[in-house]
Amino acid sequence: MREKIIEFYDSCDENVRLNENSVHYIEFLTSIKFFEKVFPSNSKILDACAGTGAYAFHLAEQGHHVTAGDIAPRNVEVMKEKQALNPLLDEIYVGDTLDLTRFSAQSFDVVLCMGALYHLPDKQDRYNVVSECLRVLKKGGIFVGSYMNRFAVVLQNCNGNLGNIDEVLMFIKEGTEGPFYASSPKEIKTMMNDFSLEELHHFGADGIGYLLYGITNLIDAEGFENWRQYHFATCEEESLLGYSYHGVYMGRKR
Asked: Which of 83, 103, 217, 226 is the least crowded, having the fewest Cβ atoms under 10 Å away?
């Protein structure tokens, strides 16, 4: 699976994903909104699935002390290029969240795991990732894990028709498609409860914007602001969580 993940990120431009259109940008804005609500000032943060550093550099600009790593060497090279122009991060490294032994126990106030949980189809691997993240997190620290929602992926894959219903039904059963694994809010909540995390927030990062792709990407600034306000008002609604393409769980280590 590691090779498949690296191959995927070698073939796409992760650096533009979160700001290439309104649908993706709302994911970034929503996550930042909750980060600002919960993270203590001047936190020592590990962004363990940093991609090309969208969150890492933003958090560093806000005064946090950020270490950023990613499994894909190409993503890490992009972060290093950004760092050369604007040196904000404490450390940048290539690494796998299944093995964070480069860091001592209880090293960070905040650990972001915003990627690994939707690239690991094996349940034990997902549990091992969370265990490693919590090992390097201080007691009372904040864990952030993002995931892909199985129900949302099904809707997107239908592409406006049910001609591929056999594939859709298989995905509902297995949750695996290429280098991606999609779970559900219930599955994530159960896993986090197994680790005795104190839930702080559980929200849909991007809502149903992917279903309105052609609309949300064409609205003007005022329309986008109205859409953003609606999304912010409903993103923690439990009955809607499963239809957000990305979900985010935030919990405190006891």
From this structure: 226
The answer to the question of residue 174 being in a domain is no
The number of folded domains in the chain is 1
Q: What is the pLDDT of residues 4-17, one digit of tens each?
A: 788 878 777 777 77
Which CATH number does the domain housing residue 234 bear? 3.40.50.150
User: Residue 170 domain-assigned?
Assistant: no
Q: What is the pTM of this model?
A: 0.93
Q: Residue 71 contacts by C-beta under 8 Å, 6 or more apart in sequence? A: 2, 5, 6, 9, 49, 94, 95, 96, 97, 116
Tell me how far CA of residue 183 lies from CA of 90, 148, 162, 177, in angstroms.
33, 6, 21, 12
- Region 233-252 average pLDDT: 96
Domain with 42 in it: 2-150+179-252
Question: Over 70: is that where the pLDDT of 124 sits?
Answer: yes
Please state, in angstroms and rounded to a whole number, the distance separating the CA atoms of residues 88 and 150.
36
User: Which amino acid is present at 167?
Assistant: E
